[in-house]
Amino acid sequence: MSPSSYPQGEVLPPREGTDAYGAQGNVGPVERTQSRGRNLLSAPATYILVGINVAVFVWMVLHGVSPKEPTTNQLLQYGATNPDYILGGQWWRLLTAIFVHVGLIHIATNMWCLWNLGLLGEPLLGPFGLAAVYVLTGVAGNLLSLAINVIFREHESVGAGASGAVFGIAGILIVLLSNHKLPIPWTELKRLRRSVMQFAGLNLVIGLATVFTNIIRIDNFAHLGGFLSGLAMGVPLVPRMTSGRVRYLRRQKFTFAVSTFLLALFGYWISNLK
After folding, report:
1. Percentage of residues in the chain with pLDDT exceeding 70?
2. The predicted structure's pLDDT at residue 271
3. φ, ψ at 139 (rounded to 5°)
4. Residue 226 covered by a domain
5. Does residue 187 sit within a domain?
6. pLDDT of residue 206
7. Domain range for residue 43?
8. Does a structural domain hold residue 45?
9. Cα 218-132-1 angle, rounded to 5 deg
10. Which of 40, 44, 159, 243 has the largest CB neighbor count within 10 A?
11. For 49-85, what is each residue's pLDDT tens digit?
């Protein structure tokens, strides 16, 4: 996500080590898996999310948007966030913005991260779970960014990108990979978890560093909001990860429903700040 009249932002991909588990098939409520390689059937939600993001970017370019430096007006036309637009009633921008990107480098970097983390996370969450986490944490990041912009009267801020959702997936993975009951050697779980933590930590530091430069503008609050919401959603899921598919999916639906309700309350609170 990236604010200001010069929107831009990116996150670095996780270390190569994160690919190992991502190549496995969907395990539903975390059952023993067999390696199937990287293909659409092994991680459908990951590829669908990447495909939607790429399709939106291609659609924008085909309709005259610069693939290198799109203007803020062009980004707003295709669903980027802006405090005045959102508080004026266009709350759908909180969702559409997570599929809009600020140039080729921005989308390429975010999709590389989403692909890696998605292949790692989808066996633990399932297709429905991964898609829900992407949407909910992306919206959570946009809401936190919106709240900060409203509080500090940054009404010209324009933001777009999937990085808040990417941080959200990283956050929930850090929690889920702490489950000792998973049918994966603990040394491997620790390695994967450490890799995701390094990815998140490094990119949060990079984002903070951009505060002191004019080279690139990154919406750190969108990243932070996505990351924290991912951590929070992971906590109630851990006890049900190995209790059977039905119970795990039931806990997922309950968790995501409560998260949606809390985000709606947060949005209502923000709407009364102006």
Report:
1. 83
2. 96
3. -65, -40
4. yes
5. yes
6. 84
7. 36-271
8. yes
9. 10
10. 159
11. 999 999 999 999 999 999 999 999 999 999 999 999 9
pLDDT attached to residue 106: 94
Q: State how many domains the chain has.
A: 1
Torsion of CA 206, 209, 214, 217, to 10 degrees: 50
CATH of the domain at 80: 1.20.1540.10
Residue at 131 is within a domain: yes
pTM of the entire predicted model: 0.86
Mean pLDDT of 225-250: 96
Residue 13, pLDDT > 60, answer no
159 strand-pairing partners? 81
* Amino acid (1-letter code) at residue 113: C
Residue 99's CB: how many other CB atoms inside 10 A? 23
How many CB atoms lie under 10 A from the CB of residue 144?
A: 24
Contact between 101 and 112 (Cβ < 8 Å): no
Residue 78 burial (CB count, 10 A): 19
**What is the Cα–Cα distance from 219 to 78, expressed in whole angstroms?**
19
Look up tokens 């489950």; give the residue: 179
Of 47-61, 157-171, 207-221, which gets the smallest average pLDDT? 207-221
Q: How far apart are CA 183 and CA 189, in angstroms?
A: 10
Write out the chain in H/E/C secondary structure: CCCCCCCCCCCCCCCHHHHHHHCECCCCCCCCCCECCCCCCCCHHHHHHHHHHHHHHHHHHHCCCCCCCCCHHHHHHCCCECHHHHHCCCCCHHHHHHHCCCCHHHHHHHHHHHHHHHHHHHHHHHHHHHHHHHHHHHHHHHHHHHHHHHHCCCCCCCECCCHHHHHHHHHHHHHHCCCCCCCCCHHHHHHHHHHHHHHHHHHHHHHHHHHHCCCCCCCHHHHHHHHHHHHHHHHHHHHHCCCCHHHHHHHHHHHHHHHHHHHHHHHHHHHCCC
Cβ(227)–Cβ(167) under 8 Å?
Answer: yes
